[in-house]
Design brief:
Blueprint lengths: L1 E7 L2 E7 L8 H6 L2 E4 L7 H4 L7 E3 L4 E6 L6 E2 L4 E7 L2 E6 L4 E6 L6 E2 L4 E5 L1
Antiparallel strand pairs: 1-2, 2-3, 4-11, 5-7, 5-10, 6-9, 7-8, 9-11
């Protein structure tokens, strides 16, 4: 048996794994499994991010930025595509939530982002 620590969606778990070449008694196999989240679980980066504030477009999921479709100073309309993220070989289009002007682009193409991370600020 091996004890391992894994992190899933920012939560850390300790698990006990039986290796195929080891023999284990029925009692130890029955007691093996997933324990409660470890008390030393790291804070997920998404929850550690500062509040986005008005006009900030945040990433709806973790992924990689594959396109930024706007530039600072550019006027945008609500629903206009401003960026594209790729996660699990699927593209997600990020649209402006309201009319405005791009005040700041906070990421670049190729940046790995996390859910909730600010991408673009619109005034």
């Amino acid at each position: 048996m091996k004890r391992l620590r894994i992190t899933v969606e920012g939560k850390t778990y300790e698990v006990t794994v039986e290796l195929p070449n080891e023999t284990a008694s029925a009692a130890s196999v029955a007691s093996a499994g997933v324990s409660a989240p470890a008390t030393s679980a790291p804070v997920s980066a998404a929850s550690a991010l500062a509040p986005a504030g008005p006009g900030v477009i945040v990433s709806p999921l973790g992924g990689n930025v594959v396109a930024i479709n706007v530039k600072v100073g550019q006027a945008v309309k609500a629903g206009e595509q401003v960026a594209t993220l790729e996660a699990m070989k699927m593209n997600t289009f990020i649209n402006a939530p309201a009319d405005g002007k791009v005040a700041e682009v906070l990421v670049t193409v190729g940046t790995a982002v996390q859910e909730g991370q600010p991408l673009i600020r619109i005034e």
